From TrEMBL, chain A:
<dbReference type="InterPro" id="IPR000032">
    <property type="entry name" value="HPr-like"/>
</dbReference>
<keyword id="KW-0813">Transport</keyword>
<comment type="function">
    <text>General (non sugar-specific) component of the phosphoenolpyruvate-dependent sugar phosphotransferase system (sugar PTS). This major carbohydrate active-transport system catalyzes the phosphorylation of incoming sugar substrates concomitantly with their translocation across the cell membrane. The phosphoryl group from phosphoenolpyruvate (PEP) is transferred to the phosphoryl carrier protein HPr by enzyme I. Phospho-HPr then transfers it to the PTS EIIA domain.</text>
</comment>
<dbReference type="GO" id="GO:0005737">
    <property type="term" value="C:cytoplasm"/>
</dbReference>
<keyword id="KW-0762">Sugar transport</keyword>
<dbReference type="InterPro" id="IPR001020">
    <property type="entry name" value="PTS_HPr_His_P_site"/>
</dbReference>
<keyword id="KW-0963">Cytoplasm</keyword>
<dbReference type="InterPro" id="IPR050399">
    <property type="entry name" value="HPr"/>
</dbReference>
<dbReference type="InterPro" id="IPR035895">
    <property type="entry name" value="HPr-like_sf"/>
</dbReference>
From TrEMBL, chain B:
<dbReference type="GO" id="GO:0009401">
    <property type="term" value="P:phosphoenolpyruvate-dependent sugar phosphotransferase system"/>
</dbReference>
<keyword id="KW-0762">Sugar transport</keyword>
<keyword id="KW-0808">Transferase</keyword>
<keyword id="KW-0479">Metal-binding</keyword>
<feature type="domain" description="Phosphotransferase system enzyme I N-terminal">
    <location>
        <begin position="7"/>
        <end position="128"/>
    </location>
</feature>
<feature type="coiled-coil region">
    <location>
        <begin position="35"/>
        <end position="112"/>
    </location>
</feature>
<dbReference type="InterPro" id="IPR023151">
    <property type="entry name" value="PEP_util_CS"/>
</dbReference>
<keyword id="KW-0670">Pyruvate</keyword>
<dbReference type="InterPro" id="IPR008731">
    <property type="entry name" value="PTS_EIN"/>
</dbReference>
Length: 87, 568
């Protein structure tokens, strides 16, 4: 298992479009990827799941992956989030 | 058979007679049962999900062809749910766990997802609850072997009857639908706007009376009065047909001449423009003979987005409209938004009294970075045509000066960055606050044009909320108090040698054309559908008698008298 915790910096948080972008990227990996906010865990490959967390700007989330490409997956997603998710 | 009359909201004008067809959105009854072979059940579900995807992909393509990308986008959202592990994946898992039938589990999971979305703190997400219910219903119908309502059942002359019509419904209307009647909805509902765009009559909000209408009943729908007659007798049918023919004849004659200018019998040119809400409305505007755009509302860019629209996104939309009108005037109104509208990404505070609150130019001036993005986009797009920039809800000179100085700032920034910008865009204000109309002589010195927004001007002048059904009878733009403000504004504009237009609903009321010309308006801007008729009216008018008529109207005490006056 590999995990990292980071802060969501883009203005609208994990709103529709940024969330869709994240989910799309997560879908490219074999490993299972979870997104955790305040103890609530969802599948990072599910748009509905990610939307249900309603993550806002400034909130902290944890990316937790399990599988062969887990570390690669978490690092790629972290970069994507830090780059502002297309915003 | 005796005829029944039903009264509803007159949401889109016109008269139609036709056969009722119920737009079916029924949910099949779902019974829970145990299944022996859960894997088999999952397989059954997977096949159905594939079929739902096929249906939605087809719908998306036909919608894209007929109505454009924006409308087709609804189906993209639907399709993404069908690939979502939290939704379809969850349904499959639960079928295996509980060994229950796909119908029962699908319904259960759909409802959970919809409640989850509805409980999120953000309106954009809440609206997705309806989308997932829509998808869930499609799956249920397919599982039960019921095909979703087939729009090809609608023939030319059908009158669509429904509880409510969503964008995903009206997007599927074949051409030739005669009218629509719904139990829910108001004049500003999506269905109403759609009906006016399609040019078909609509009576909405008839409530439970909808149940009185049976499939295939003959209906007369009067969208001007808000009346529906069920199974009218032969005599009424004949009368309605005669009236329809008369209206069609007038409309045909008007449409034939829609392309030519509207000049009064004694030679005064009145410019007749269209109001549009998005670039997709352009075609109807051009077909109906719009000589320009008198009001391009820019809110769609903000409301239908999940982020503040960027300079590029805005410039593209504005350029599209300016190019389509090839050098004819295009009045673009800057952002008119406030506490009554929820921008999911903006976190606007809810206000007790949003129409008297921090909205429109007030909001823009205290959010200069948002405002300047729009001004920059306007200036950049302005190189493609004749751009007129209009600030909404202005009530004093300092607002105009501040907005103009931001516009100048935007211009010098753009020039420094090496962008091409519009050299001489006209800058004007919307007159919609009584204070602005009363001091129009002072404001007129600061601007190139003024346009009277009668919708807000009426509600502010008469202190009657236009969305409140209980005060609806008070709300009438033809009230003499409103008309006096119009006269005052026109007089002030003439003093300064600038143009006054009108872009509220009143401008498109054919019964009022003569009074409006008599009050001194130079330009009238309206929904595209009424342009040909208003142009025809202008051609019949002579300015001197029109002025006398307007003077007389100003002395009347109520709108009814005024309307009957001009109907003479």
């Amino acid at each position: 298992m590999y995990e990292e915790t980071l802060t969501i910096s883009n203005e609208t948080g994990l709103h529709a479009r940024p969330a869709a972008l994240l989910v799309k990227e997560a879908g490219k990996f074999e490993c299972s990827i979870k997104l955790v906010k305040e103890g609530k865990e969802v599948d990072a490959k599910s748009l509905l799941g990610v939307m249900s967390l309603s993550v806002r700007q400034g909130e902290e989330i944890t990316l937790r992956a399990e599988g062969d490409d887990a570390e690669q997956a978490v690092k790629t997603l972290r970069q994507l989030i830090e780059s502002g998710l297309g915003e | 058979m005796t005829a029944d009359h039903i009264k509803g909201v007159a949401a889109a004008p016109g008269l139609a007679i036709g056969q009722a067809v119920r737009w079916r959105k029924d949910r099949p009854k779902v019974e829970k049962r145990q299944v022996d072979d859960a894997d088999q059940e999952v397989l059954r579900l997977e096949k159905i999900v594939d079929r739902a995807k096929e249906q939605l992909t087809r719908l998306r393509e036909t919608t894209r062809e007929r109505m454009g990308d924006d409308e087709a986008g609804i189906f993209d959202a639907h399709l993404s749910f069908l690939d979502d592990p939290a939704y379809i994946g969850e349904i499959k898992n639960r079928i295996r766990d509980k060994k229950e039938n796909a119908e029962a589990i699908s319904e259960e999971v759909t409802e959970e997802m919809a409640s989850m979305l509805a409980s999120l703190p953000d309106e954009y997400m809440q609206a997705r609850a309806d989308d997932i219910r829509d998808v869930g219903n499609r799956i249920l119908l397919l599982l039960s072997g019921i095909e979703p309502f087939d729009p090809s059942l609608l023939q030319s002359g059908s009158i669509v009857i429904a509880d409510d019509l969503a964008p995903s419904d009206t997007a599927q209307f074949p051409p030739g639908v005669a009218a629509m009647v719904t139990s829910r909805g108001s004049k500003t509902a999506h269905a109403a706007i759609m009906a006016r765009t399609l040019g078909i009559p609509a009576v909405l909000g008839i409530g439970d009376n909808l149940d009185q209408i049976q499939e295939d009943d003959t209906l007369i729908v009067d969208g001007d009065e808000g009346n529906v007659t069920i199974n009218p007798d032969a005599d009424s049918q004949q009368k309605a047909r005669a009236e329809m023919e008369r209206q069609q004849e007038l409309r045909r004659a008007a449409l034939e001449k829609a392309g030519s200018d509207a000049v009064t019998a004694d030679g005064k040119r009145i410019q007749v423009f269209a109001n549009i809400g998005r670039p997709a409305d352009l075609e109807t505007a051009l077909q109906n003979g719009a000589e320009g755009i008198g009001l391009f509302r820019t809110e769609f860019l903000y409301l239908e987005n999940d982020h503040w629209p960027t300079e590029e996104e805005q410039a593209d939309a504005y350029a599209k409209v300016l190019k389509a009108f090839e050098g004819k005037p295009v009045v673009i109104r800057t952002l008119d938004i406030g506490g009554d509208k929820d921008l999911p990404y903006a976190d606007l505070p809810t206000e007790e009294n949003p129409f008297l609150g921090h909205r429109a130019i007030r909001f823009c001036l205290s959010n200069p970075e948002i405002f300047k993005t729009q001004l920059r986009a306007l200036l950049r797009a302005g190189v493609h045509g004749d751009l007129w920039i209009m600030f909404p809800m202005v009530e004093n000179v300092s607002e105009i000066r501040e907005a103009k100085s931001l516009l100048e700032e935007a211009r010098s920034e753009l020039e420094k960055e090496g962008h091409a910008v519009a050299q001489q865009p006209k800058v004007g204000i919307m007159i919609e606050v009584p204070a602005a109309a009363v001091t129009a002589d002072v404001l007129a010195k600061e601007v190139d044009f003024m346009s009277i927004g009668t919708n807000d001007l009426t509600q502010y002048t008469l202190a009657a909320d236009r969305g409140n059904e209980r005060v609806a009878p008070l709300y009438d733009a033809a009230h003499p108090a409103v008309l006096r403000l119009v006269r005052q504004t026109c007089d002030a504009a003439r003093q300064e040698g600038i143009i006054t237009g009108m872009c509220g609903e009143l401008a498109g009321d054919p019964k009022m054309t003569e009074v409006l010309v008599g009050l001194g308006l130079d330009e009238l801007s309206m929904s595209a559908g009424t342009i040909p008729e208003v142009k025809e009216n202008v051609r019949r008018i002579e300015t001197a008698p029109a002025r006398t008529l307007a003077d007389e109207a100003l002395t009347k005490s109520d709108p009814v008298e005024i309307r009957s006056l001009s109907g003479k």
